[in-house]
Amino acid sequence: MTANEIPTLPLGSTGMDITRVGFGSWAVAGGDWRFGWGATDDTDSVAAIRHAVESGVNWIDTAAVYGLGHSEELVGKAIADLPAADRPFVFTKAGLVWDPEDRLAAPRRVMAPASVRRELEDSLRRLDVERIDLYQVHWPDTGESLEYAGDGTGAVSPRATPLEEYWQVMADLKAEGKVRAIGLSNHSVEQLAAAERIAHVDAIQPPFSALNRSAAAEIAWAHGHGTGVIAYSPLQSGLLTGAFSAQRVAGLPAGDWRAAHADFTSGLTANLRVADALRPIAARHGVSVAEVAIAWVLAWPGVTGAIVGARRREQVDGWLGAGAVRLSAADVAEVAEAVTAAGAGTGPVRP
């Protein structure tokens, strides 16, 4: 597949036209932190990023917390010597602050103004760019650990920064020219509406796949407000690639967060049933199972693009063509039937 063959869509009103698949750089960040994917090879990671860009993918999504800064460093290295005309858009995120003395501790959700500005400068340095194309709030600020589930009362820590305050800071950064566009990841419809009253939400980044449809309402909100949508985990962390089995899950290496996650433990059987149901659709279209899973996400009204990860260049080739796959109504119905029969995930089963 070449650049001319990867369709593009406008990312909301940002002025950026992005390819329908983008490179996600969480998995390349290494395994020596709380949410790592196991050991990685930096040379392979940079090669995978370069291969995606050279194949026509025109945006990369990363975050400061991925590898505790390492992912951004790898992205910066991968694009450093590219001519300006060939450079991809670079999207990153703020709001998860880690303890440098304990790499395995869960990061805290922090969006205090001074912290955000400090994170931005650190990201600009690691990425070696003068401006971030899309700067996103990774999670709503709770002032607590990313894994903190609350006390059941709905109370928010007194350390938390109100959304109105941190979204104003993001709008200020855009006005100052430090970032081109601003977005929200993992925020509810109510939070999106509150942010929109302060400054336009240029883009959102929700999790979305055939196995996790819980963000359908947020996508619908974005569709109605001229807001771009870049969906993450369209392959549900690899489960919808067609390459997983119970045996492979049992052999996940130390340092891979997936080994203890419900999707790979209690929910594994149902999830693999859905992945298997994608095989005949993939065969009919002459594409990979992964490309069908991504195409299903891209068929959802309002979705601009999907973020797909890879640790090696051959993995990129397994999903590169997803943006050009057009599922029929019968294909979509077949996926809906499989999801319903397996009882996988929650939310609507078809667009």
CATH topology description: TIM Barrel
Helix-strand pattern: EEEHEHEEEHEHEHEHEHHHHEHH
| Helical coverage, percent range | 25-40%
* Assembly status: single chain
Tally of helical runs = 12
CATH homologous superfamily assignment: NADP-dependent oxidoreductase domain
* Overall tally of domains: 1
Spatial strand order of the main sheet: 3-4-5-8-9-10-11-12
List low-confidence stretches.
none
CATH structural class: Alpha Beta
Distance between the termini: 27 Å
Shape: globular
Task: Decide which structural class fits the backbone.
Answer: alpha/beta
Biggest β-sheet, characterized?
Answer: 8 strands, parallel, barrel
Q: How many beta-strand runs? A: 12
Strand proportion, as a percent range, falls in 5-15%
> How many whole angstroms does the radius of gyration measure?
19 Å
CATH architecture: Alpha-Beta Barrel
Average pLDDT taken over every residue: 92
Task: Please describe what this structure looks like.
The protein has an eight-stranded parallel barrel with strand order 3-4-5-8-9-10-11-12, surrounded by five helices. Strands 1-2 form a two-stranded antiparallel sheet. It is of the alpha/beta class and 351 residues long. The longest helix has 15 residues, at 113-127. The mean pLDDT is 92. It has a single domain, classed as NADP-dependent oxidoreductase domain (TIM Barrel), CATH 3.20.20.100. 34% of the residues lie in helices and 14% in strands. Helix 1 links the parallel strand 3 and strand 4 (59-61). Helix 1 (42-54) packs across helix 2 (70-79), helix 8 (268-277) runs antiparallel to helix 12 (329-342) and helix 9 crosses helix 10 (289-298).
